[in-house]
Amino acid sequence: MITQLLTVAADATPKNQFGFFEAMEQGGAIAWSIFGVLVIMSVGSFYILITKLLEQQKVFKEFNDVRGPFWRANSLKEGASKLGKNSAWRQLVDDALAADAQHGKMTDQTEAHDWLHGSLARSEAAINAKLAGGLPFLASVGATSPFVGLLGTVIGIYRALINIGLAGSASIDKVAGPVGEALIMTAIGLLVAVPAVLAYNWLSARNKRLAGMLSGFSTDLLANLSSNGQVKPAVPAAAAKPAAAAKTAPITKPAAGAPAAKPKA
C-alpha cells in the first residue's frame, strides 16, 4: 500500500520541462551547433591563456640569468653558453654575434653600425611576435562570442514567436522553452567573451613588460659590441659564499697538581 502511494506521488510530482538540456533539445541542431562553437572558443581561450602564461613566465625567469652570470662572463660567447639553448635571450645574443661577424666586412662604419642595430631589431621583433602568438585569437573570441550567443538568442526568440502564432496565445508553456534557450545562449556568449578579453589584456600587458626588457638588453648588447666589450651594464654582485668558521684550538686545562705557568716579566 505504501509503495503504491509513493508511486502515485512520484507520478503526480511535476517534472521540470524547461531545463538546460530541454531547452537545447527544443532548439535542435542549430542550438547545439551554436553551443558547440562557443565551447570551442572557450576551450581555445583557456588553452592559449595557460600556454602563453607559461611561456612568459619562462622568459621572466631567464632574465635573472641575464642580469647576473651572463654579464659577469669575460665575453659574449662565454655568457651565451650560460643561457638556455631555446631561450629568447640566447637568441638575441646569437643573432648579435652573427651580425657582428658580418660587421667587419662593411667598409662604411655608419652602415656597419646600422646593420648591427637592424639585426638586433629584427631579432627582437621576431621574439615579440612569437610571444604575441595566439593573442589575436583571444581578441577575436572576446569580440565575436557575444554575437554568436546573440545569434542563438535571435533564433530562440524567433521560435517563441512562431509558437505564439501557432497557438494563438502567449501561454507560458509555448514560449518558455524558446525564450529559455535564447537567454542561455546570451549567458554562454558572455561567459566566453569576458575571460577572453581579460586574458588578452593581461597577457598583452605582460608582453609590453617583456618587450621593454628585450629592448634594454638589445641596447646593452649593441653597446658592448661597439665598444669591443668595454661597456657593460651594472649587474648585481654575486652572492658571497658563507666563510668557513675559523677553527680555534681547544683550550686545555692544566693537569691536576701541575703548577700554573707564571707570567713572564
From TrEMBL:
This protein's GO CC annotations: plasma membrane
Membrane-topology descriptor: Multi-pass membrane protein
InterPro entries: ExbB/TolQ_transport, MotA_ExbB_proton_chnl
UniProt-annotated stretches for the region Disordered: 244-265
Keyword ATP-binding set for record: no
Subcellular location: Cell inner membrane; Membrane
Listed GO biological process terms: protein import
Keywords: Cell inner membrane, Cell membrane, Membrane, Protein transport, Transmembrane, Transmembrane helix, Transport
PANTHER family assigned: BIOPOLYMER TRANSPORT PROTEIN EXBB, PROTEIN TOLQ
Main function: Involved in the TonB-dependent energy-dependent transport of various receptor-bound substrates. Protects ExbD from proteolytic degradation and functionally stabilizes TonB.
Stated family: Belongs to the exbB/tolQ family.
Listed name of the protein: Biopolymer transport protein ExbB
Organism: Pontixanthobacter gangjinensis
